[in-house]
Amino acid sequence: MTGHAADPYDPKAVRASTGSVFAVPVVTAASAGAVIEGMRTARLGRDAPLQVVGTDEAGEVELAHVDLTLPTLVVTGNETRGLSAQWRDACDVVARIPMRASAASSLNMASATAVVLYEALRQRAAM
Fold first, then answer.
1. What are the residue boundaries of the tRNA/rRNA methyltransferase SpoU type domain, all occurrences included (predicted)?
2. Model-level pTM greater than 0.85?
């Protein structure tokens, strides 16, 4: 979580996460730049490259066609503005989640992230 974001330990957020906020590491940073710099450091000396996958309704690749079996940092923008330019530039790929014609053009942040994580689990289980 970077910049101005919801408090993951707010009682409403904890309840909505059904407690998973205590089982999955939550990392906060002052800015996207701080995370991107840490990400560059994490990429050094790894056997498998760390890829950065962003989500956007106008992404260039459908999510199912992104190899999520690799070590992956998933970046999801907020519902109002989507990915910042700084995050978009840091992404190796910006994926879209296909939506059938409906009144909604995109999912909210939590739903989009859940879909990406499910797809990663699906791909990894098939290995």
1. 4-118
2. no
